[in-house]
TrEMBL record:
PROSITE patterns: TCP1_1, TCP1_3. It is found in: Cytoplasm. Belongs to the TCP-1 chaperonin family. This is CCT-theta. The keyword Nucleotide-binding applies. It comes from Chondrus crispus (Carrageen Irish moss). It holds the Pfam family Cpn60_TCP1. GO terms for molecular function: ATP binding; ATP hydrolysis activity; ATP-dependent protein folding chaperone; unfolded protein binding.
Length: 546
């Protein structure tokens, strides 16, 4: 039998019908660089204290007005595969140190922009990648020498507030004087004996509309944004039991029919269940429990809880239940049973308070110290509350970073410019083609002070020239004063950036850029078919109707 003839159709003959593929320098590499540049340009205008806000409406029609880079890249839902790598790098930065996501996106975009110039000069992609990786290693080494400040005592509110100020000012400029001491107090109050065990989950934020930021306070314990269920609103020296099941009379799983022949039978129908429920609640009361937290309370159960003077707190969210258990050191029970002494939590004071027009239940732990601290945040709009909450989350992560590495570098662009200057010197000592790559890497670091100048309405070119001249004259901590539009000493102005944030930002941005530049071919399968969404079908039907 003669062999069947298969025509040679190139790569498209190997792949499924409908697959798209692009390759080569112009089609693949430069397209990827262009997509990443656009993402970087979008995010970097939000950097710094005068960064612009972005208004994003996501697929659930939820509105975000924020300058937080992590929120912007998360809610944008980027689909371009190369730009997605930059988004992944920023997400890795968020998981690792909790701050500096905007730095990663802006720096990676600028590195790719400089890489395009190198490729058009005639350098090979592999040479650019090797040069960037060598420059990244050198930058991380130089960074360790640029530490200018160290928090010697992370249990001192004043020194911690000073270190957190720059992180907050970069997101909420003007509010750092109010928020930094609050966050420092909250973090220090829940600091365990072993500082390395600090968890950001121990700091919660309760957002309440009304009032101003200056009305915000720190509560040692948990705050639930709802009142109690019964008439008991205040319990001192509370003994708390936490249940993950509904607190009501047990119901059978099967349906049944009951035939009642007299009024007496009707009266006695539920008596056995009621007496059984009462005996359970009585036993719980005798065990010393004075507060019960559960997802739901039955009417009959509420009657007996009132009878035995037990405060009932409804927690619809499992996270709220978990916070109450962590605050009071109670063990959550899955069944409605009498808790043992070890399973009962303790609170100095549990009471319902009215803040503004919002009723909330506060679990206070003042005497023996709480494992949880809550920042009661007040502001005029929900969007402002949400944005301040993101700034607080970043600051708490900076505090966590302090427990690992308390060193800081000069802020306001001073660190990046000094790194750039030293890398330029290093590039001059290199004999091969990678000196051009290292030089461009050093130029890319200037994007941070440049953006700070642009967002502050200053002449970026003149400011960068002035700052570069100051660094060349030996002023390693010279940074940009965004208020005066002049050069300032970042250390004297107490403007610091955390060293560990810069370290991971440089590392992750360099790795992401190297990965993108190594791509020379993009192959995309045809998207899976299927029926149209219902709203589209309805729209088509309406169009066809006479």
């Amino acid at each position: 039998m003669a062999p069947s003839y298969v025509p040679n159709q190139g790569l498209s003959g190997l792949l499924k019908e409908g697959t798209k593929q692009v390759s080569g320098l112009d089609d693949a590499v430069l397209r990827n660089i262009d997509a990443c540049r656009q993402l970087s340009a979008l995010v970097r205008s939000s950097l710094g204290p005068n960064g612009m806000n972005k208004m994003i409406v996501n697929h659930l029609n939820k509105l975000f007005v924020t300058s937080d880079a992590a929120t912007i890249v998360r809610e944008l839902e980027v689909v371009h595969p190369a730009a997605k790598l930059i988004v992944m790098a920023s997400e890795a930065q968020e998981r690792e140190v909790g701050d500096g996501t905007g730095f990663v996106v802006a720096f990676a975009g600028e590195l790719l922009d400089q890489a395009e110039n190198l490729l058009r000069m005639g350098l090979n992609t592999a040479e650019v990648v090797q040069g960037y990786e060598r420059a990244g290693q050198e930058a991380l080494g130089i960074l360790q020498e640029l530490a200018v400040h160290k928090v010697s005592d992370i249990r001192d509110i004043k020194s911690v507030s000073k270190a957190l100020t720059s992180c907050i000012a970069s997101k909420q400029y003007g509010l750092e004087g109010t928020l930094a001491p609050l966050i420092a107090k909250a973090c220090i109050s829940v600091m365990p004996a072993n500082a390395n065990m600090f968890s950001v989950e121990n700091i919660r934020v309760a957002k309440m509309l009304g009032g101003s930021i200056t009305n915000s306070t720190v509560v040692q314990g948990a705050v639930l944004l709802r009142g109690s269920e019964g008439t008991i609103k205040r319990v001192s020296d509370a003994r708390v039991a936490v249940y993950t099941c509904d607190f009501e009379a047990s119901q059978s799983e099967t349906k049944g029919t009951v035939l009642l022949k007299s009024a007496e039978e009707f009266t006695n129908y539920t008596k056995s269940e009621e007496s059984m429920l009462e005996s359970k609640i009585k036993a719980i009361s005798e065990a010393g429990v004075s507060v019960i937290a559960a997802p739901k309370f039955g009417e009959v159960a509420m009657h007996f809880l009132e009878k035995y003077k037990i405060m009932a707190i409804k927690c619809m969210s499992k996270f709220d239940l978990r916070r109450v258990a962590r605050t009071t050191k109670a063990i959550a029970l899955a069944k409605m049973q009498t808790p043992t002494t070890d399973e009962i939590g303790r609170g100095d004071l549990v009471q319902v308070e009215e803040i503004g027009s919002t009723k909330c239940t506060v679990f206070r732990q003042e005497k023996e110290g709480s494992r949880l601290a809550t920042i009661l945040l007040r502001a005029s709009t929900q969007n402002l509350l949400d944005d301040i909450d993101r700034a607080i989350d970043d600051a708490v992560n900076v505090f966590k970073g302090m427990t690992k590495d308390p060193r800081f570098v000069a802020g306001a662009g001073a660190c990046e410019l000094e790194l750039s200057r030293r890398l330029q010197k290093f590039a001059e000592t290199r004999p091969g083609l990678d000196q051009y790559c290292i030089s461009k890497y050093a130029e890319a670091l200037e994007v941070i002070p440049r953006v700070l100048a642009e967002t502050s309405g200053l002449d970026a070119t003149n400011m960068i020239s002035t700052l570069v001249a100051a660094h060349a004259a030996g002023k390693a901590t010279a940074g940009l004063d965004v208020e005066e539009g002049a050069v300032m000493d970042s250390v004297e102005a107490s403007v610091f950036d955390q060293l560990i944030v810069k370290h991971w930002g440089i590392k992750l941005a360099t790795d992401a850029v190297a990965t993108i530049l190594r791509v020379d071919q993009i192959i995309m399968a045809k998207t899976a078919g299927g029926p149209k969404p219902r709203d589209m079908q309805a729209g088509d039907a309406n169009d066809e109707a006479p």
